[in-house]
Amino acid sequence: MMVVREQTPSEALAIVPIQFFVPASQQTTTDADFEPTPMLQIEGARETTPETPKQLQETTPKLPPAPTKIHPDAEDAAALLMMARTATYVPKTDPGMPSFSLELTDSSQEGASTQETEREKPPETATMLEQLDSLVQKLASSAAKGKDESPQIQRETGGESSAKFETPGGINQIPDDMKQKCYIWGTRLKEDADGDTDEYEEICTLIGQGEYILMRTHLASLQAKSDIESQIVSAICLILNQKNEKRFQEQIYCLPPDIVSMALSDHPRGEFISPKTKKEFRVEAYPSFIHFIDRKKLSSHPYIFAPVYHSGHWWLWLINTTKRKCQILDPLHKKAPSDERKDINKFTGYVFSRLITYAGGKPLEKGEKEKEIKASYVKISGQKTSYDCAIYVMKWLELIEPENIKKGKYEWDNWTQEEVDHYRVEYASRILFSEMNKQRDRAIRESSAIRLSKPSSVLLSPFCQINSADIETG
């Protein structure tokens, strides 16, 4: 409590309570009669008692509330305390009206007439009031600035998580820790008490020309040092064909490898008469996969990029439908490694020609020449391991520019092995978080629920790169 005199018509004293805060450094004194003075309470500000912040929950991040108590600087508080103790009394001239105002009116009183007849004040009082007014304005300004700068973290529901990835371009903005969680959720196989796993659980349904279903065992093939399943490559083809980019809408069609893979299963050495069915290849023999082909793009786009899988290895056909020219990009070989591969390439060229014709386009060759289609190998830097061929083929679908093939060569900066490993993590989220995935909300929700065993703050660094080998999926 501080006694401040007010100019009144009588000799009586008016006691005006003013509270102010004294810093801890100023509260220690040898004067037994001195008691720490409370905080200077500015009208409109709330007095709160600081509490020890509670432990933040992992699933719902929150910031501690912005402080509402205003603490003046030690120097200002000391000056205010000194002025309060040395103030002298002034006789009152009007018992009901103080001779000064701190201009700390309630907001509801703003706009009302504040013009009062000021009475003459001694210099000491005027100086004290000016300093008080200056201190109040400074503290109020500081509080307002602090309020504006306080960040807010909102609770995120499952629906909001899903909305975060609604645009195709947004997939590149998914945080690395979320990609890691998605990779763990999608590729991890669980085993029950009987020893059975959930490998055949359907966890992704891509909606395109039909419903393309992926099971957990397909995603599990993205694990480190594993051979990638054909269904993963088909899924990437379907996703790329739906991208709203000129490359895929007008120039390049990525042919899903399902029919070609089934045909090579029936014609394992490139025989034109299947040793299994005793029949020639016919597109109609594979009705389960026909509806995944976009006939319009297959028959109209100037280029067809067609992944091929046989005997544990992937390579890529580039077909120029305008010039009827075919080329092969093999991440491991610069030429056909065997005569059997040459026969397989001839049979594969025939299958592509039949598919284009089935879609309404012109065959690559006519008559019996259709079984003699040739494709030259392009020299290109490729894989460094025995199990990354599918990664190269899928990335080449997006990156290869056919016009840059010069004299049978394609010059480019190959990836490091760490980058290749990282793409396995990327492809899991690209498939499961795709807008084409009917089960996308589940993938986001269950991926978000996973707790990372490694510190995840490092993952936010732009210099951090997560590789499939860094993640335990067992």
UniProtKB/TrEMBL annotation:
Compositional bias segments (type: Polar residues): 50-60, 102-115
Native species: Arachis hypogaea
Region (Disordered): 46-69, 92-125, 141-173
GO MF terms, alphabetically ordered: cysteine-type peptidase activity
Ubiquitin-like protease family profile domain residues: 212-400
Name the record gives this protein: Ubiquitin-like protease family profile domain-containing protein
Alphabetical list of InterPro entries matching this protein: Papain-like_cys_pep_sf (IPR038765), Peptidase_C48_C (IPR003653)
Annotated Pfam families: Peptidase_C48
Gene Ontology terms describing biological process: proteolysis
UniProt similarity note: Belongs to the peptidase C48 family.
UniProt KW keywords: Hydrolase, Protease
Taxonomy of the source species: Eukaryota, Viridiplantae, Streptophyta, Embryophyta, Tracheophyta
